[in-house]
Amino acid sequence: MTPTDIPVQRPRADGTLVKALGRAFRWKRMLESGEFATVKELAEHEKLGFSYMTRVLRLSLLAPDIVEAILGGVQPPELTLAALLEPFPAEWDGQFKTYSIKPPNASSPNTSET
């Protein structure tokens, strides 16, 4: 078997994470538009617990690069929905450290600045 005969496995997005992100951004938009005045009102409308809704809504605060990694299916395996529903830093740098994701524009150890 040659290297060209080996099927390439492309990253596959985690449907559970993608769905949670979609919900978070949809709910955020519904609140920002004034469709619902409070998170409690929205949670009641969606027939969900207030606590769960607030934890999912927090996903809309993730750094864009983390969102892109999840949507592209290239997030670290330990980055599960359960992990994301736990409290995380609001600052993007702290999120990169918490989830062991390389921040954008981070220089790799093999590059040198001139």
Helices and strands in order, then pairings?
Elements: H1 15-32, H2 39-46, H3 50-57, H4 64-72, H5 81-84, H6 92-98
How would you characterize this protein structure?
The protein is mainly alpha-helical and 114 residues long. The protein has one domain. Helices cover 47% and strands 0% of the residues. The relative contact order is 0.14. The termini are far apart.
Summary of the model, kept short:
Helices cover 47% and strands 0% of the residues. By secondary structure, it is mainly α.
Task: Write the H/E string, N to C.
Answer: HHHHHH
How far apart are the first and last residues' alpha carbons, in Å?
Answer: 43 Å
In the predicted model, the low-confidence regions spanning at least 5 consecutive residues are 109-114
Structural class by sheet pairing and helices: mainly alpha
Gyration radius over CA:
18 Å
Rounded mean pLDDT score: 89
Largest sheet: none
Strands, count: 0
What is the percent of helical residues? 40-55%
Q: What is the count of structural domains?
A: 1
Key phrases:
47% helix; mainly alpha; 0% strand; 6 helices; 114 residues
